[in-house]
Design goal:
Radius of gyration: 32 Å
Strand content: 5-15%
Number of strands: 5
Shape: elongated
Low-confidence stretches: 20-26, 276-293, 523-527
Order of helices and strands: HHHHHHHHHHHHHHHHHHEHEEHEE
Length: 565
């Protein structure tokens, strides 16, 4: 179904941009926003997702200032389409839904049709939530009728057929199959013919008409191997393999299952080239902890030596007390002063060690985030997918469609998608791919809702990149501050501001919440402010809190920038 997603996205963007070109006014800002949207669409078609996202966000901000619902919807749709192509389906859903809200305020039936189609694709073929997907497909049909576009109508009916057949509701999918069989000569092309033949094979397999099913499956595979539709060809291999198992042609079934696995692996490898490599950083936390332990031992030894020396000096003082009283007083004051200095020095050392321990602990957490995210995505998720596939083959081979096996397959698929979502939450792929400022802008957007709005302001370009470790540290520090606002402040407005001054990054996080007494924040559990302050100190930065009860809170951070090598 991958080809159809690309087709839908590009055609939707093309139609929307075309409508906007004809509707543009003399307003220069409107013209500039339209041009930005067109360029963002072109960049997405060229698979330059980073620049496309940057331009589409810029276009979105201008569209909002214009209060142009059509441009706003189109900008959100472009952002969602980029995330869709990057396999960030949760983010794609989020922005498609936002786009649909504004599209519903317009008369642009083409755009409404394609947003519903895109939502249907994600729910059916990525999240396996077929009831939601079929709902959006049927909504899409209504808008394609209004726009009088028969090609849109044909493609949506093909999608609905596939969705119903995937969940073995052949009677519900049959009317749609009959329609696409009747009209495929007019609307079908090399991008849909493989899927069409495969769907006919699935239907005749359901009817146990082996000869017709074999004809359509082999025709679909032949066309797929001659063309470039790898995704549909892989599905044709899979469905034909299921049919061969069903008809006891086990050797041929395994050959096509093998072909499906090999082609699917190839498609996945191609998709991974678009994805972010989130390999862990090279910091060895155990070695760092050992270094801290050595520092502690060294200072402990020095302290023992100092105490022994003080003891000896006191003995010397006692022996000469009767002779030189003034000298004794002098030495007493001297050693007391020296002792005070040593205590202060040790206190500073202990404070520094504590900061280093906190930093080591946080660095360790970041390393584990990367390792766990990579392990979940590359191992556990793959194992769950494989288990579901083998369970399907077993069920087909043994003609066992019991309720327990069906539920087990559903649970495996659900676990697969939850693990994939968890790996994205542990390690934001936008951070390493597009940089700190782009990730923070997205973080503010994602955290904003009807209860609280996070405003993002930066004088630094979103394209600016720093050292990878530095960006990750700053992202999680700011993320923790925003979480504190959500959990504790009771604010309805917050702002994140960033700027560069003399090779330093200046960050201000403020809110209009309930505030608190500054002298009490060290004892407030759950805020994590002491840990953040310690982390900033180890980076040779400055951390300042300004807050009063009922007057909100303002946190200012100044940190030297670590540029990428």
């Amino acid at each position: 179904m991958y080809y159809q997603r690309i087709y839908y996205l590009l055609l939707a963007l093309f139609i929307s941009v075309t409508n906007l070109v004809y509707a543009q006014t003399e307003n220069s800002l409107h013209t500039k926003t339209t041009a930005l949207t067109q360029e963002a669409t072109r960049l997405m078609r060229a698979e330059n997702y980073e620049k496309s996202l940057i331009l589409s966000r810029h276009a979105l901000s201008k569209a909002i200032s214009l209060k142009d619902n059509n441009l706003i919807a189109l900008s959100y749709n472009t952002i969602a389409a980029n995330f869709d192509q990057l396999a960030e389906y949760e983010k794609a859903l989020f922005y498609y839904k936002k786009g649909l809200v504004y599209a519903n305020k317009t008369n642009n039936n083409h755009l409404k049709n394609w947003i519903h189609n895109n939502l249907g694709n994600i729910y059916c073929f990525d999240k396996k939530e077929y009831s939601k997907g079929i709902y959006h497909y049927k909504e899409s049909l209504e808008y394609s009728i209004k726009s009088a576009d028969s090609s849109e109508f044909f493609l949506t009916k093909l999608n609905i057929t596939w969705a119903y057949f995937d969940i073995n509701k052949f009677s519900l999918g049959l009317p749609y199959l009959n329609y696409i069989n009747k009209h495929h000569k007019k609307h079908s092309d090399e991008t849909t013919i493989v899927a069409l033949k495969m769907l006919n094979g699935m239907y005749y397999s359901h009817l146990n008409k082996a000869e017709k099913a074999t004809f359509y499956f082999e025709h679909a595979i032949k066309l797929g191997e001659e063309g470039n539709e790898k995704s549909d060809l892989s599905f044709a291999y899979q469905e034909y393999s299921k049919f061969l198992f069903k008809t006891n042609h086990f050797k041929e079934a395994y050959e096509y299952l093998k072909a499906y696995n090999e082609l699917t692996a190839k498609i996945n490898n191609e998709d991974k080239l678009k994805k972010l490599n989130v390999a862990g950083i090279n910091l060895e936390i155990d070695e760092y902890k050992r270094e801290i332990d050595n520092i502690k031992t060294e200072y402990k030894t020095q302290h023992q030596i100092l105490l022994e020396k003080q003891s000896k000096n006191k003995l010397y003082s006692i022996t000469i007390i009767s002779i030189l009283l003034l000298i004794i007083v002098f030495f007493y004051l001297y050693f007391q002063n020296n002792k005070l200095k040593q205590k202060n020095k040790l206190k500073n050392i202990e404070s520094k060690i504590q900061e280093n321990i906190i930093t080591a602990s946080i660095n360790g957490q970041e390393i584990e985030r990367k390792k766990i995210a990579a392990f979940l995505h590359d191992n556990i998720s793959a194992l769950l997918s494989s288990a579901a596939l083998h369970l399907s083959v077993f069920s087909t081979k043994n003609k066992n469609n019991s309720e327990e096996i069906t539920k087990t397959k559903a649970i495996l698929i659900q676990a697969h998608y939850k693990i994939r979502d968890l790996s994205h939450q542990l390690l934001p792929s936008l951070l390493a791919r597009f940089g700190l400022f782009f990730a923070l802008n997205d973080l503010c957007e994602m955290n904003s809702n009807s209860t609280i709005h996070f405003e993002y302001s930066s004088s630094v370009s979103n394209e600016t990149r720093y050292n990878e470790d530095y960006e990750m540290r700053m992202y999680f520090i700011i993320s923790e501050l925003l979480n504190n606002i959500i959990k504790h402040s009771e604010a309805n407005k917050a702002k994140l501001s960033l700027k560069e001054v003399n090779s330093q990054l200046r960050i201000v996080v403020s809110d209009n919440g309930k505030g608190f007494e500054i002298n009490q924040f060290q004892t407030i559990e759950g805020f994590g402010l002491n840990q953040i302050k310690a982390r900033i100190n180890t980076m040779n930065g400055k951390f300042k809190i300004i807050s009063k009860p009922k007057e909100g809170t303002r946190i200012e951070i100044i940190v030297p920038i670590e540029y990428a090598v």
